[in-house]
Amino acid sequence: MFVSKSLLRMTFVAALAPTLALAGPLADAAKKAEEQAAAGDTVGAHNTIRDAFGAFAATLPFSIGKAVFVSAAPEGYGMYAVRPEASFKAGEALISYVEPVGLTWRPADGGLLESHFTVDLELLDPKGTVLAEQKAFGSFDFKGSVRNQEVFAKLTLNLSGPPVGDYVLRYRFRDAASGAVAISEQPFKIVP
Q1: 65, 98, 136, 118 alpha-carbon torsion, rounded to 10°
Q2: Which residues, including other chains, have CB under 8 Å from residue 123's CB and lie 6 or more apart?
Q3: Which residues lie below 8 Å from residue 18, measured CB to CB, with a gap of 6+?
Q4: What is the pLDDT along the chain (192 residues), one digit of tens a residue?
Q5: d(CA 157, CA 91)
Q6: Which of 63, 53, 87, 68 is nearest to 178 (CA)?
Q7: What DSSP element (H or E) covers 154?
Q8: Bridge-partner residues for 98, per DSSP?
């Protein structure tokens, strides 16, 4: 079968069109950061990517990126050890590491930016029946000069005397600035 060179060229250009359409602020920032890094401006490259990612994240819907039980209190963003099993003995603390995504940052005094969210707690049985709840279980404020994306919540629940069985820990996150709600659910067991 004979295919003309012009048809092959058109097919090649058409195949590239979706790739070219993906260029945008993040791709532009990545290109600029690569140029800065190549010119020896490491800090400038870092700041370019950080600022572009912060601006991009502001366009994302408020959601939960990660919610895991951890073996001990996290030492910082991404600095945690996942608990190998979601089984707890009565009286043992349930420590959750949770990363919200798409927080709303708004201007604050002194040219800073701020973000705030609250967390409500619900304890459910496996069928979804609410066994216990607490509004404003947690409250988190962040203030800084950039839209920090390395934000996490450490939530510790101490259950006293729950019967052995299966449960679900539901946290309802509320972004104070936007009013948006995001939910994390973590199944767990109380064992003898």
Answers
A1: -50
A2: 130, 131, 132, 133, 157, 159, 167, 168, 169, 170
A3: none
A4: 454 554 444 444 444 444 445 568 889 999 999 999 999 999 999 999 999 998 898 899 999 999 999 999 999 999 999 999 999 998 899 999 999 999 999 999 999 999 999 999 999 999 999 999 999 999 999 999 988 889 999 999 998 878 999 999 999 999 999 999 999 999 999 999
A5: 10
A6: 63
A7: strand 153-157
A8: 67, 153
